[in-house]
């Protein structure tokens, strides 16, 4: 079978992380989300995968290339154009991406999966395909039950007991919701579905194609099969996924490094004296990182490759990106940090340079500056309080 991974979005709800990375490349510890999806598809027999790209397309294409090192064939459908030497994004929508590929080559000549590039799943795709074929469906989606009080965050699916889809509700109130089963963004289509998507215009799967299938009375089904679905729609979701990964709760992700003492794993070339630091696991430290004496690491936390934690720095239930220097006066608590920004687990964002906080967080590869004088520190902290 074949598959399409949707990877063209800008990921505005997970900024500033996506200022330099498209959502499919957001790392879960040391692996991009899309790598987990590719591995899962390969495990279920998918060998040819297309990815629609647009925003920061090179980040995806340069990492995955032709897919051979992942045991699959990967190709790309770029949505945009070159203007004055710069690539300009021009996404055509999730369904428009399917039609663009089909118009180009007729690639979808057999049933194909469509997955969102910003969600991690462990759905039994083989069983999903069996369900799809047993119903004679032209389109199927995977749905999950959620607590009624949370339905307002999802697209609700209304279906018959046999799975035939009757309609949808987009983010209804708990009182108005006609069901508590929601669309997970995991689909299986027959090639004939591509004929229902108009060419040359932006077109959406959930908002346009699916309602059209219902209106036509097409054999369109939903499978309610329990599976793990980690949808990274906003920064707070990303933080919780990172926490889960450190305790073994993310499909396909293992905590990296060699365990040198209970709860502490390190990569190669890490400089650390565990006996001179305060450490509470689980903690993972990436290759070539430096952890100075008297640093404190209170897990779950992950320190990226090449990062530096100065003496006195405290990293508590936080995730530090690669090549980030955490100063001796810093206490990170429930945060995601880099040399450019810090985002709390509650979604509060601080831009380091704009806030004058480069004495707190900085790029470890840049010349190391002394700590700001007290007046600079006070001014920066006042700005930080205003932003929060």
What report would you give on this structure?
There is one protein chain. The chain is an alpha/beta fold and 388 residues long. Helix content is 20%, strand content 31%. The chain is built from seven helices and 31 strands. The chain has helices at residues 33-43, 57-64, 94-105, 125-134, 205-216, 235-246, 374-387, and strands at 2-7, 27-28, 31-32, 48-53, 73-78, 80-83, 86-89, 112-116, 119-121, 139-145, 155-159, 165-170, 181-189, 220-224, 229-231, 258-261, 264-266, 278-280, 283-285, 290-291, 296-298, 301-303, 308-309, 314-316, 319-320, 324-326, 331-333, 335-337, 341-344, 349-351, 361-363. The strands form eight sheets. It has an eight-stranded mixed sheet with strand order 16-17-19-22-25-28-29-30, covered by helices on one side. The longest helix is centred in the last third of the chain and has 14 residues, at 374-387. The radius of gyration is 23 Å and the shape is elongated. It starts with a strand and ends with a helix.
């Amino acid at each position: 079978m074949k598959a399409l991974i949707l990877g063209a979005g800008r990921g505005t709800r997970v900024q500033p992380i996506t200022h330099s990375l498209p959502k499919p490349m957001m790392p879960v510890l040391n692996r991009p989300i899309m790598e987990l999806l590719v591995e899962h598809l390969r495990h279920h027999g998918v060998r040819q995968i297309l990815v629609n790209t647009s925003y920061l397309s090179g980040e995806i294409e340069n990492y995955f290339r032709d897919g051979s090192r992942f045991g699959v064939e990967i190709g790309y459908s770029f949505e945009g154009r070159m203007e004055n030497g710069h690539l300009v994004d021009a996404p055509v929508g999730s369904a428009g991406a399917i039609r663009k590929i089909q118009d180009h080559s007729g690639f979808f000549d057999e049933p194909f999966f469509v997955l969102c590039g910003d969600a991690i799943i462990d759905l039994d795709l083989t069983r999903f395909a069996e369900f799809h074929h047993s119903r004679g469906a032209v389109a199927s989606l995977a749905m999950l039950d959620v607590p009624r009080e949370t339905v307002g965050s999802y697209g609700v699916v209304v279906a018959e007991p046999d799975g035939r889809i009757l309609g949808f509700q987009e983010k209804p109130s708990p009182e108005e919701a006609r069901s508590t089963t929601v669309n997970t963004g995991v689909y299986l289509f027959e090639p004939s579905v591509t004929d229902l998507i108009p060419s040359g215009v932006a077109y959406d799967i959930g908002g346009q194609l699916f309602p059209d299938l219902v209106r036509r009375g097409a054999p369109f089904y939903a499978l309610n099969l329990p599976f793990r679905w980690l949808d990274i729609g906003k920064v707070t979701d990303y933080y919780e996924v990172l926490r889960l990964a450190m305790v073994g709760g993310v499909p396909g992700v293992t905590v990296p490094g060699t365990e040198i003492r209970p709860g502490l794993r390190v990569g190669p070339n890490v400089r650390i004296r565990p006996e001179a630091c305060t450490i509470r696991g689980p903690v993972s430290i990436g290759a070539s990182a430096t952890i100075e004496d008297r640093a404190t690491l209170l897990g779950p936390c992950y320190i990226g490759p090449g990062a530096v934690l100065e003496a006195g720095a405290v990293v508590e239930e936080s995730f530090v990106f690669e090549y980030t220097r955490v100063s001796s006066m810093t206490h990170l608590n429930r945060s995601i940090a880099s040399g450019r920004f810090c985002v709390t687990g509650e979604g509060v964002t601080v831009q380091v340079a704009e806030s004058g906080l480069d004495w707190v967080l900085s790029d470890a590869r840049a010349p190391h500056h002394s700590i700001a004088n007290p007046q600079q520190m006070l001014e920066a902290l006042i700005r930080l309080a205003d932003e929060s």
